[in-house]
Recover the amino acids of this structure.
């Protein structure tokens, strides 16, 4: 039992993804700097373009009518696409391959020759991915603050912090789904494709629910419905239901992954 | 008191003798009346008695495909047990079921007295394993890999230094760039470094050159002397012959033989091939004697001296005596008893 608190597999997982973490960190920092920095040059033309027709053509994004404001621009360009979708895809991809690749690559035999339980493998792989989330998350926040100060735009920094705090359970939910796939599907490519399909699916579902009010209920099946970055950033509104959803999904998927992984045969052929 | 069957060196008559280990008794062959002594073997002080691996009716089906069926055997403390069988016989399945990778369809197994179904993590504290399809983390260097595994064992690694000396590997290179033999060496090092009570190995010498194989056998013998138990599967009969105390042969998922290697060797006998100047028919050999291309061929177990003396009455042009290869015995089992 004391083994599980030594977190050696988690530590190794962290080391294994260290390079990717650094690359993603710089990538997202650069992206944040670029998009936030672009705002002043777009501001004028955006304000001019803000008629109902233009907004209508973007209504698959939440708060498309706010595109001409700094907060609206940030959430639309940066948070909705690069953050909630693209980064989630990256994390999902990594999580959904992290156990599968040990089985596909047949390293699981040698790993499990150590006195480690299957439960421990799933949990520690999960924990090993958390530092990556935290590092990327807060380094991007710092970049946004820096750019905002440099541009002399107004932004509520407490709300910005809240966005990045809520991002943690959001991404944890994403990686726990990935881990569940990873524990079930041996083929890491297949497992990743399922994961990415789900994330893109959730994005599409959310867009549909925004565009067509008939399908509004569909939105409940999308994570994005529970994390409206604009409302948090502009008004400091926290969606309590969203937090509950993210945390429950995390817990349920983790338990599911553990139970399945304990029960299954680890076949190597 | 033990009972041993002794063959008369002259007429091959088999008699049963009773005595205590180490005792020397007089014998007279009831058939040919030859007189002699028989010394009972000493009971070895490290008599392997305790069963450290106990397998009971173990069965594993992959869906409808049979992996192993109703396997029952045990491995004693301090012995080197060889597990043999043709491709697809179920060796890997047995090993991977024993170590908890596969859940048995039926039956049970105990390692060091602990049930594999409930205690597998604890069992692995005292059991090392070298997988058959050895895949190590290619992105790590040998040193990083051993550090990682050392930390997972969470134990002293008393054999690490010795092992690194015997099986030296380029520790600072990435495992990705290792040759097959180097990877195998690293696999051996990690399995033995914490000096576990039992080591289970699936074809451990594949990829090792003959020199290293030799070193590996010596190492295994050393471990055995310390009372450690080795269980391994193999296709290399010469190595099984060299180092195993007992063997199990599995075919089609079922155990077909479980023998002491000594007993097996006795069963094997020696093959004589003789060319004599006289007509071959003039020589009366044992029942199994055959004449082929003018050469006399027969198999005999143990009593070489007797037959050499018999042959000395003839003019020998050529004489060959060699051990019946293990191969012949195994092929007999592999193909199924006719
Ligand atoms: N994952 C699997 N799915 C289905 N059948 C399997 C699987 N693994 C093994 N088998 C079958 O189980 C039987 C035993 O296979 P196993 O790998 O245990 O043999 P083996 O004795 O190790 O053979 P080899 O000497 O080739 O290594 C074979 O018929 C094999 O086809
Ligand atoms: Mg095999």
């Amino acid at each position: 039992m004391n083994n599980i608190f030594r977190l050696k597999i988690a530590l190794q997982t962290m080391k294994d993804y260290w390079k990717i973490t650094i690359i993603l960190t710089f990538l997202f920092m650069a992206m944040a700097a670029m998009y936030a920095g672009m705002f002043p040059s777009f501001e004028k033309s955006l304000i001019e373009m803000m008629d109902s027709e233009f907004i209508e053509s973007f209504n698959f994004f939440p708060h498309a009518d706010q595109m001409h404001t700094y907060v609206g621009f940030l959430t639309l360009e940066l948070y909705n696409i690069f953050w909630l979708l693209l980064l989630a895809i990256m994390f999902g991809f990594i999580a959904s391959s992290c156990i599968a690749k040990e089985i596909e690559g047949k390293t699981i035999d040698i790993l499990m020759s150590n006195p480690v339980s299957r439960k421990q493998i799933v949990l520690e792989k999960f924990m090993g991915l958390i530092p990556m989330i935290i590092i990327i998350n807060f380094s991007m926040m710092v970049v946004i603050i820096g750019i905002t100060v440099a541009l002399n735009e107004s932004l509520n920094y407490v709300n910005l912090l809240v966005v990045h705090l809520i991002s943690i359970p959001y991404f944890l939910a994403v990686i726990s789904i990935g881990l569940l796939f990873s524990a079930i599907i041996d083929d890491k490519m297949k497992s990743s494709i399922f994961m990415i399909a789900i994330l893109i699916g959730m994005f599409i579902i959310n867009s549909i629910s925004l565009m067509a009010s008939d399908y509004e209920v569909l939105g409940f099946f999308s994570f994005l419905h529970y994390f409206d970055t604009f409302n948090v950033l502009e008004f400091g509104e926290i969606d309590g239901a969203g937090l509950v959803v993210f945390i429950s999904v995390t817990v349920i998927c983790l338990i599911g992954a553990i139970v399945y992984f304990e029960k299954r045969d680890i076949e190597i052929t | 008191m033990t009972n041993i069957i002794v063959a008369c060196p002259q007429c091959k008559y088999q008699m049963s003798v009773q005595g205590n280990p180490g005792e020397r008794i007089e014998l007279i062959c009831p058939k040919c009346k030859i007189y002699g002594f028989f010394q009972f073997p000493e009971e070895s002080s490290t008599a392997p008695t305790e069963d450290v691996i106990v397998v009971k009716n173990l069965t594993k089906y992959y869906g409808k495909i049979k992996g192993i069926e109703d396997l029952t055997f045990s491995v004693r403390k301090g012995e080197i047990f060889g597990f043999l069988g043709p491709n697809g016989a179920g060796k890997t399945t047995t090993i991977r079921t024993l170590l908890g990778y596969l859940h048995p369809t039926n039956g049970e197994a105990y390692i060091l007295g602990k049930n594999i179904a409930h205690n597998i993590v604890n069992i692995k504290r005292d059991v090392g394993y070298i997988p058959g399809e050895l895949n190590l983390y290619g992105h790590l260097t040998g040193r990083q890999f051993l550090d990682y595994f050392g930390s997972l064992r969470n134990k002293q690694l008393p054999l690490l230094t010795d092992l690194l000396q015997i099986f030296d590997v380029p520790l600072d290179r990435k495992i990705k760039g290792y040759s097959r033999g180097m990877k195998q060496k690293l696999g051996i090092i990690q399995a033995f470094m914490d000096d576990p009570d039992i080591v289970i190995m699936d074809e451990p010498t594949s990829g090792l050159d003959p020199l290293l194989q030799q070193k590996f056998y010596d190492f295994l013998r050393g471990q055995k002397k310390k009372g450690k138990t080795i269980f391994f599967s193999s296709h290399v009969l010469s190595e099984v012959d060299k180092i195993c105390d007992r063997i199990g042969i599995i075919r089609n998922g079922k155990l077909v033989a479980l023998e002491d290697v000594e007993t097996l060797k006795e069963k094997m006998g020696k093959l004589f091939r003789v060319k004599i100047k006289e007509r071959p028919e003039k020589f009366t050999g044992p029942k199994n004697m055959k004449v082929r291309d003018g050469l006399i061929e027969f198999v005999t177990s143990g009593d070489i001296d007797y037959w050499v003396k018999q042959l000395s009455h003839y003019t020998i042009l050529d004489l060959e005596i060699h051990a019946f290869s293990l191969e012949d015995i195994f092929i007999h089992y592999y193909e199924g008893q006719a």
Observations:
- Chain B has three domains: 2-39, 51-264, 269-334.
- Chain B touches chain A at residues 62, 96, 99-103, 121-122, 124-125, 128-129, 131, 133-137, 139, 148-149, 151-154, 187, 190-191 (CB under 8 Å).
- The longest strand of chain B covers residues 51-62.
